[in-house]
Amino acid sequence: MADGLYPRLADAFPALAAEIAELLRAEDEPLAEVVADLPYHGPCTCTATCINLLTAPPGSSGSSMIQLEREGMDIIWLSLDPSQTTITDIEVLDGRDLGPNAQRSG
C-alpha cells in the first residue's frame, strides 16, 4: 500500500506503471522515481466519460502536464501537482484495456 489507505498504482496496474516509469526515464525526467510508490485513488468520476486514473485526491492537479509518446503519438498524459513534484492523474489515450481496476463501481 502506498500510504495505508490506497493500493499502489504499481500493484493495481503493474504494466502501466512500468511503462510510465520507462518513458519518463527515457526523457531523463526525475518523476520516473515516484511512479512505483504512487497511490491509486481510483478512476476519476468528474464526468461519465472521463478516463483518468487518480493518483491523488480530486482537485490536486496544477496546470502542468507531461505528454508521453510512442512513435510520435501521445499515448499517456500525466497531470502534475502545483509544485510539479508528483503525478496527480494519468490519462491513457491509446485505447488499451486497463481491466477492472480502471472501471467505476456502481
Automatic annotation (TrEMBL):
It comes from the Bacteria. The lineage of its organism: Bacteria, Bacillati, Actinomycetota, Actinomycetes, Kitasatosporales. This is Uncharacterized protein.
